[in-house]
Sequence to fold (77 residues):
Amino acid sequence: MIELQDFSAAFGPAVALRSASLRIERGQRLGVVGESGSGKTMLALCLMGMAPESARLTGHLRIDGRDMTHAPESLWS
Fold:
């Protein structure tokens, strides 16, 4: 299961993703649609553990119950 709870990503004053919350159960599929600049790419990068180091992440990103919000790269392997 993948869960975002009040998750945000920002670069300095620019907010790339604001207060996103979602829950994806094992086997479910998710489609993300939105306007240019709405945070789709940042969401995908965060869900893959590939957020830029300069990104300021707040809230929670959990995968199978483990908080991965600030997890080191070694845990994403």
